[in-house]
Design a protein that fits this description.
By secondary structure, this protein is an alpha+beta fold. It is built from 14 helices and 14 strands. Helix content is 37%, strand content 19%. Strand 8 and strand 9 form a beta hairpin.
Length: 380
């Protein structure tokens, strides 16, 4: 098939980063409303427990929202404008998109195993306590985990997580990052649409959401870790192409889809992007094969790699500069001492203007350290 639309990879990168809102922090405005717009635009923001530097969801939003504050997340959750559930991982999602999480919830409620098999007796017991006592966290249950293994959980914690995944419980709030659960009917606003979408409607939602946030995408990327959705999404994408809701486009040697408005704005995007220190779980880099293909950046987070096999460090952060991924920074925030440790910096061979890079990096590092509650930088 000969594609009518094609784009040089350098220009495609600009569109991708602009779609990710990484070229400026002013796209959404300021305050909690801006943070909500960012979550809505991206479709989800991944939550991760690692806190070597600011947690993934905070880091991701800090890169996109001017004067971002972690308190925005707490406020939006309390106002029921965002909720927690599974995207390709645990994430904050717009409450207006709640219905598109229902197929997964219903599947797990019908017996599908997410991480651990359901314990009906324990889930009934946990549900009864929350119904009678109100919001509870795992700390409110006295049973202990079954072993000292890394992934071992107590029976009550497993029950809480299962009830959360099947949608009977929602996260009422977080206390010191610990989830506090309550009944769905006491958390979900009355005006939220709770009609379960069929597979075609869900596929359309996933495709449009992905292309809005990423500029260009392949169906396998939009279906990332969506078990069993690939073939349906491929068929729906073909229908959407016939309806001219999405447009095929060629970038280098690869075929992608984009929204019609993306084609219209390819010429309007500024040529040079800002320097950004990214989270390993940032929406822009979470699909490693995609960034290898489009940005020629072979990235792996090494906290899960054996120490003697690491090349770049335990928590290596990708660095974006002039629309390219050009460096990796292994860093650690010591918030108690107020010191932001720079453990290792690796520059890619593709980085040409090194002095300009260092100048921009110095400015961004000071800002990032401050966001991490650190007043001083220490180079190792």
């Amino acid at each position: 098939m000969i594609l009518k639309n094609s784009l040089p990879i350098a220009r495609a990168r600009r569109v991708i980063l602009d779609s990710q809102r990484l070229t400026t922090r002013r796209s959404f405005g300021k305050g909690p409303g801006a943070t909500l717009k960012a979550v809505e635009h991206l479709g989800y923001v991944q939550i991760d427990t690692l806190s070597v530097v600011s947690r993934a969801h905070l880091h991701t939003l800090w890169n996109r929202v001017e004067v971002f504050s972690p308190s925005h997340i707490d406020q939006l959750q309390q106002e029921r404008k965002i909720f927690e559930h599974w995207a390709h991982a645990l994430a904050y999602l717009p409450m207006t998109d709640y219905r598109f999480s229902l197929p997964m919830m219903n599947r797990i409620a019908s017996g599908a195993v997410h991480w651990y098999p359901k314990n009906p007796k324990e889930t009934r017991k946990v549900l009864k306590r929350i119904r009678e006592e109100g919001p509870l966290s795992s700390k409110d249950f006295s049973d202990k985990k079954s072993s000292n293994d890394m992934w071992a959980r107590s029976a009550s914690k497993l029950a809480l997580e299962h009830l959360f995944m099947e949608g009977k419980l929602m996260i009422h709030q977080r206390r010191n990052f610990h989830k506090v659960y309550d009944l769905r009917e006491r958390v979900l606003p009355d005006h939220i649409d709770t009609r379960t979408p069929d597979e075609d409607s869900l596929s359309r939602h996933l495709i449009v959401s992905y292309l809005r946030a990423h500029g260009f995408g392949q169906i396998k990327e939009a279906a990332y870790l969506r078990k069993g959705m690939g073939s349906t999404m491929g068929r729906v994408a073909a229908q959407m192409e016939e309806e001219k809701l999405i447009i095929p486009i060629k970038i280098a040697d690869w075929e992608y889809y984009c929204l019609p408005e993306t084609i219209e704005r390819t010429e309007q995007i500024a040529s040079r992007g800002k320097l950004r220190i990214l989270s390993p779980f940032d929406n822009a880099v979470i699909q490693r094969k995609r960034i290898k293909q489009l940005f020629d950046f072979d990235y792996q987070i090494e906290c899960y790699v054996r120490k003697d096999l690491r090349k770049y460090g335990y928590f290596s952060l990708p660095i974006l500069f002039n629309n390219k991924l050009v460096a990796r920074l292994d860093a650690k925030a010591d918030r108690k001492e107020g010191v932001f440790h720079l453990l290792h910096l690796h520059l890619e061979s593709s980085l040409k203007n090194v002095q300009s890079f260092y100048k921009s990096l110095h400015v961004e590092l000071n800002s990032f350290a401050s966001f991490n509650q650190c007043e001083r930088l220490r180079v190792h």
